[in-house]
Amino acid sequence: MKRLIIVCVALFWFGETSAQSPTPITPTAKQEVVKRLQELLVANYISLDTAKQMSKYIGERLQSGAYSKVNSSSDFAQTLSADLRHIYRDGHMSIVYNPREATGPTDTAAVAAPRPAPDYSFTNNGVRKVEVLYGNVGYLKLNMFVDVSDAAKATVKAAFGLLQHTGALIIDLRDNGGGDPEMVQYICSYLLPPNTHLNDLYERRTNRTDSFYTYAVDGSEHFQHIPVYVLTSQRTYSGAEECSYDLQTRQRALIVGENTGGGAHPVEPFPLGHGFVGRIPFACGINPVTGKDWEGTGIHPDIATSPDDALQTALLHYFDAQLKSNPAPELKLKLQWARELTAGSAQAPVLSAATLQRYVGAFGDREVKMENGALYFSNAAGKFLRMAPLTDHVFRLVGYDYIRMEFSTDGKSLTMRYDDGFSNLLKRKS
Description:
The chain is α+β, with helices and mostly antiparallel strands. The protein is 31% helix and 25% strand. Strand 14 and strand 15 form a beta hairpin. Helix 3 (48-64) crosses helix 4 (73-87), helix 6 packs parallel to helix 7 (239-249) and helix 8 packs antiparallel against helix 9 (329-346). It is elongated, with a radius of gyration of 28 Å. Mean pLDDT is 91; it is low at 1-18 and 107-112.
């Protein structure tokens, strides 16, 4: 199962590009490709009834001459893809033209030539960013679920290791289009107890079901006991949707963002002859909690918001929940600070040059200056640090979230406030 999905990803990268000259296609090649595609649809597509409808439709289109004016191979691939989706809009289904496959007709016994496993090192094995956000919140951005090689698992393990002492975890899947279900299984094994039933994949053609369960992972204990948020968008698709759905249905994470894309059918590449490859969905997911998948519907967020606001929304939800839990005074102070910083940054005002100019001057042994429409504050070493507004008179020091600068309403003083409660009053000199 894993190999078929990864091979399909590889074919995505090695197809014909728009920069190449169009390759002409003959009427005979069109007939042979359509005939082969019809056979493969009925034999492999997850829904037999839909497969028959697709097969009938493209056959009728061929006989009616609808394809006679399609002159290039790439255009023919796009036309076939559109006609298949005319019957059912399966986002995983597509026909591609790959000149490397252009060796003539393909008989019914042909199989795709073996390809080397993709090298994901350039994309850091799908791990785009790991960070500890202010407020001790772990942030993990995954842009792909790659094959669970030793290198990929080591990358993921290192990412979770960096977040080992955080109070919450935010997994960002807003730009994740899916990948290997076994990597989804590995990620979820950090967040759920071992032997948790995640998902089943059912193949109609073989009447076979593959089940996926979590398993023991070193370093996972901490993450099974902290709040988890998953950020989504319409670009969240396929395996990324499975990860979201697995965690949501087990009530292990809150989904924050947009409704996802709605693609639940894994695909396998089939050679159609003459350089064409059919990516045909051959299985469907069955969630053990709901008994269904997300095909066509997507994952509905628990907290709906725009993708741009999803991170701030998740942070505010976490800080509010923690503040309601009656934390110790010192922790409460830091949580309040983190919440105010997050809310202020998300709704930062745009201040006029006249307002900013009011705060320019010397305060104690420090100086505030204005350059290019922004204020800058000198530290003890004389280096100027940019100030970003939170309100019309309160600023944060960019890169120093534990410090806040608050000007008096008359502009005659500046108070440096710290997240531990300490403050330092600086009076204006000029």
